[in-house]
Amino acid sequence: MYNLNEKQDFKYITFPSFEKHTELLHCFTTRKGGVSSGSFESMNIGFSTGDSDENVKRNIEIMVERLGINAYDIVETNQTHTNTVKYVTEQHKGKVFGETSFKDVDGIYTDNKNLALMSFHADCTPVFFYDPIKKVIALAHAGWRGTLLNIVGIMVRALVKDFNSDPKDIKIAIGPSLGSCCFEVDKDVADMFLNENREFIKYMEIKEPKYHFNLWEINKYLLMKEGIKEENIEVSGICTKCNNDLFFSHRGQGGKRGLLAGILMMK
Ligand SMILES: [Zn+2]
Questions:
Q1: Which residues of 71-102 are buried (b: 16+ CB within 10 A; e: fewer)?
Q2: Who surrounds ion ligand 1 at CB < 5 A?
Q3: Which H or E element spans position 12?
Q4: Which of 164, 207, 220, 238 has the fewest CB atoms within 10 Å around its CB?
């Protein structure tokens, strides 16, 4: 499930199960409400996408204004399709218009309040984590590589180890990303999935000569394996490629696209 919200012309997605927690601020952005044009139209929040830095900077300014957060409270991932997760604090803030102070980190987590975690997406799955008992939040970028590398399981283990979280308490939201309708791969990648875990065959469909996998369900399975309760996992269920008017899609736009943001903060 998901809700589509609009503030002026800025449109963003929220998840009903996370909305219940009023101490949280969360969203997944859409293409709507920014100043960029062409393939980047219009809310592109990713530098180095080919868009002008000026437009991206302006888009970030619009986004934080609409959401009511401070740009200097944001801590971003530095995504390279790894399964590395990192605990971030106040000291990592303030880099939203420049380089992060760390490299190759696809998942970030914190117990700091007023620290807005941010990740980047154009088809790759965003996964939001919240432990309302231990007051910890986390955000992960789980593309197909990150999914294969079980970044979601690694994140749960990090929360258990560092904060003594009980997986049964952790709430999850899986945001807009490629559905099984559009995540099609050749046999070589299909074999990588099946060699990783034979169970993944349950989430595979053969549409000759391609293989389709349901990455939402695979991540859900991996989370449940760590003890997350099924009723605590919300899958937004909206495919970015099928809805390319609303979302940037790497596959839908042949690689020429902007980036969307996942944002999660404890107030
Ligand atoms: Zn689709």
A1: bebbbbbbbebbbbbbbbeeebbeebeeebeb
A2: 179, 181-182, 239, 241-242
A3: strand 10-14
A4: 207
Reading the block at residue 63, the tokens are 């986004």
Task: Please answer whether residues 223 and 231 qualify as being in contact, where contact means their C-beta atoms are separated by less than 8 angstroms.
Answer: no
pTM for the predicted model, two decimal places: 0.98
Coil, strand, or helix at residue 180? coil
Task: Give the distance (Å) from ligand 1 centre to CA of residue 252.
Answer: 9
Domains within the chain, CATH numbers bracketed:
3-177+233-266 (3.60.140.10)
pLDDT, tens digit (0-9, with 9 covering 90-100), for 138-159: 999 999 999 999 999 999 999 9
What is the structure's pLDDT at 157?
98
Alpha-helical (H) ranges within the chain are 16-19, 53-67, 144-148, 151-163, 187-196, 215-225
pLDDT of residue 99: 87
- How is residue 113 written in tokens? 């309040």
